Automatic annotation (TrEMBL):
Major location category of this protein: membrane
Top-rank taxon: Bacteria
Topology within the bilayer: Peripheral membrane protein
Matches recorded under InterPro entries: AAA+_ATPase, ABC_transporter-like_ATP-bd, ABC_transporter-like_CS, ABC_transporter_ATP-binding, P-loop_NTPase
Keywords assigned by UniProt, alphabetized: Antibiotic resistance, ATP-binding, Nucleotide-binding, Transport
Endpoints of the signal sequence: none
Organism annotation: Aeromicrobium senzhongii
Localisation per UniProt entry: Cell membrane
Record-given protein name: ABC transporter ATP-binding protein
Amino acid sequence: MHYGRGDAVVRAVDGVNLTVQPGTVTAILGPNGAGKTTTIETCEGFRRPQSGTVRVLGLDPVADAEALRPRVGVMLQSGGAWLGVRAGEMLRHMASLHATPLPVEPLVERLGMESFVRTPYRRLSGGQKQRLSLAMAIIGRPELVFLDEPTAGLDPQSRRATWDLVDELRSHGVTTVLTTHYMDEAQELSDHVHIIDAGRVIASGTPDELVAVGAQNTIRLRARASLDRASLAAELPPGATVTEPEPGLYVLTTEVDPSVLHRVTGWCAAHGVLIDSVLVEHQTLEDRFLELTGRDLR
């Protein structure tokens, strides 16, 4: 998928190849402009692919749109509701379009929408619009739901409620594909993660697999300044490094296990070093994401 002409052509999606397993939660991550939303909108049938093949539940999302609509739920970044309609009216309208929708009132209560069901859409806050959009996406009991940044702008309570709902959907066999800028959200919710940059998939795997591939774990140790770092590093496994980014703070990068911690504390005891604090830090999905995509602003 590309935009523009001649030298100004921008490839928003460039040979993306991915598969989503039924009954799982799959996160698509990437910096701004990486191609996430274009990929999702192509799968939803809102964009026609310029090359390649897209199949959703075995069907073409453009040619078979009528057959797919009852089976797929879509949460749009733009909301998808009319400006003047009340939130509750919009949700009841969406329910009326499906043969066996979820009951409206329990869903309203579940997502904490009671306080704004009679409020026109144009007057809703960003977080309220997000909750309504999520309710609209799942009201029809879809087999597959696309969630584009489902917790953007939500307060912590609403965010946690959304996580619980995604977990519940998975437990009922619903397949979820989501985009998010919250790495902790992807790490918490996802069975599988695809990281996209410049329109290409640059890494795929479970959150644990992606984290394990990147940088080693880290020990942060505080003690007196100017310890013999070379001597300490010699006690650690091959390839370990010891740095002192500020006086008295030592960062040890190595594969951390109980035997390594024993070596560190043993070295300190042998050299008369009193440890003020020691902290083992494990790499997160955000760390891995930044390693792959860089730290520059997009």
